[in-house]
Amino acid sequence: MDTNDAQLPIAYARRLDIVPEQIHYMARPGLFALPPGSLTVLLFITPQIFSALFLLWAIWWPMPSGGRRLAFALIGTAMLAGLVVGVLWFVLRRHPGFVSGAIRAPFISLTVTDRRVLWTLPWRNQPLFEIDRRRVIGGILGSVDRKGRGHAAMMLRPGDPAADIDGNIHFDRLPNAARFIDAICEAG
User: Fold this and answer.
1) Which of 109, 157, 158, 178 to pair with 137, CA 20 to 30 A apart?
2) Can the peptide bond before residue 161 be classed as cis, meaning omega within 30 degrees of 0?
């Protein structure tokens, strides 16, 4: 016992060996974490991108010579850029959660430890979302492909504010989904 501990009115035990968290599952789904409609949106956006590039090419080729042609090219480019920025601004103002979620979805890492479940981004010190393992009561494994990627759900205690109406948090196209279910069902 330390001399400082001897002066305390009651016996005091100091724990020097802090037990680190044990990681049971970690996944970085990457592009598979994008929302299901992302490929469809990309398919519909691609022709507009090519149209805008074609318009820019038509405006600037051959290189405008003379004041009026240069002014037309600059005004046309500014109008095209303004329309693109306007559409992006409209989408961002109308659906900010979907856009920010779709942008950062490929970078999110899902980690299950013996104490908590974490959603993290590599450029942030704090997790995006964290759930204490005591709130998790089990898991459901959905359909899985031959590579082990599939659907899963984490069941939370009744009335948990993080859960959907059924008391679950759903994961789509999760790498090694069976291992995820095993990790959240292991005793903490």
Assistant:
1) 109
2) no
pLDDT, tens digit (0-9, with 9 covering 90-100), for 76-113: 999 999 998 998 888 888 888 877 877 888 888 999 99
Q: Where are the domains of the chain?
A: 23-30+105-185, 38-102
pLDDT in tens, 112-160: 999 999 999 988 899 989 999 999 999 999 999 999 889 999 999 999 9
Amino acid, res. 140: I
Fold for domain 23-30+105-185? Answer: PH-domain like (2.30.29)
For strand 150-156 and strand 136-144, is the pairing parallel, antiparallel, or unpaired?
Answer: antiparallel
